[in-house]
């Protein structure tokens, strides 16, 4: 599973992205959504009419002491 950040054109159509995965966060101010999805859906999400950009969130790693 990937966690991606998506910039959308219209926030009222964000719920349509649920067909690709689980919406984790919707920004109340920005047109930004965080979605947890499978990597097979990444191309489909990028081609969606409402999507402006898609970024994969980097995984955090602990630094050795």
What features would you describe in this structure?
With 65 residues, the chain is mostly beta strands. The chain is built from 1 helix and 4 strands. It has a single domain (2-56), classed as Alpha-Beta Plaits, CATH 3.30.70.80. The protein has one helix at 42-46; strands at residues 2-8, 21-26, 32-37, 51-56. Helices cover 8% and strands 38% of the residues. A 4-stranded antiparallel sheet has the order 2-3-1-4.
Sequence-ordered SSE layout with sheet pairings:
Elements: E1 2-8, E2 21-26, E3 32-37, H1 42-46, E4 51-56
Antiparallel strand pairs: 1-3, 1-4, 2-3
Features:
65 residues; mainly beta; Alpha-Beta Plaits; four-stranded antiparallel β-sheet; 4 strands
Number of strands: 4
Distance between the termini: 29 Å
CATH superfamily (homologous) name: Peptidase S8 propeptide/proteinase inhibitor I9
Determine the mean pLDDT: 91
What is the CATH third-level topology name?
Alpha-Beta Plaits
Count the DSSP helices: 1
Across the major sheet, the strand order is 2-3-1-4
- 3D shape: globular
Q: Largest sheet, described in full?
A: 4 strands, antiparallel
